[in-house]
């Protein structure tokens, strides 16, 4: 049985879609999944990137694209009342629902994802957050130093492994990024020889060509 680690941040509509589609995409394949909340903003800061919602034309396309994917695969999805939103409360709540050293269950992750992406409400509305917290009854205090540090540590581990965005699925030390990588993950689990031959490594060796100048350089 292959062990998968699913790095996610509830702020990402692509992470939500990948989460919803994962069971169907991997149906019939022997695997288990650890769901690991991470802070997408921390990844962006580390790699010096902007999020899709920070570039207005890309923001508009992103939401058209994700709603098309949701429509195509019949996934219930509504844009939150505010986006981007601060995901810390939801990420910490998910972590707090698991014992120390463990990752949250799929059920917990499902509830926090659907809190953000179903119904079109404000993900950080205090009343909604209180209701979700009461429903999930976390084992630990989501506002504790311990839980906050756990989120930082998880984000750091994901970055150290090379993750640069969400969703990212890690299996056997290989990283698969994005909702459109689910087919690749399934092929890997089926034992597609492409992944064990030279093609996997060779594909990543494209030499850089023209490099963008950084601000202030001539």
Please, could you describe this protein's structure?
- The protein is α+β, with helices and mostly antiparallel strands.
- It has one domain (2-201): 3-Layer(aba) Sandwich (Glutaredoxin), CATH 3.40.30.10.
- The protein is 46% helix and 10% strand.
- The chain has helices at 13-25, 40-47, 56-73, 88-96, 106-117, 126-136, 145-160, 182-189, 198-203; strands spanning 2-8, 31-37, 168-171, 174-177.
- It has a 4-stranded mixed β-sheet, with helices on both faces.
- β1 (2-8), α1 (13-25) and β2 form a beta-alpha-beta unit.
- α1 (13-25) runs parallel beside α3, α1 packs across α5 (106-117) and α4 (88-96) crosses α7.
- The longest helix is centred in the first third of the chain and has 18 residues, at 56-73.
- The chain is globular and about 55 Å long.
- The termini are far apart.
- The mean pLDDT is 94.
**Proper CATH architecture:** 3-Layer(aba) Sandwich
Continuous helix count: 9
CATH top level class name: Alpha Beta
**Helix content percent band:** 40-55%
Q: Total strand count, please?
A: 4
Question: H/E order of the elements?
Answer: EHEHHHHHHEEHH
Structure class: alpha+beta
- The count of domains is 1
CATH topology annotation: Glutaredoxin
Distance between the termini: 53 Å
Adjacency order of strands in the biggest sheet: 2-1-3-4
- Strand-residue proportion: 5-15%
**Which blocks of ≥5 consecutive residues have pLDDT under 50?**
none
Radius of gyration: 18 Å
Q: Name the CATH superfamily assignment.
A: Glutaredoxin
Assign an overall shape: globular
Give the rounded overall mean pLDDT. Answer: 94
Tell me about the biggest sheet? 4 strands, mixed
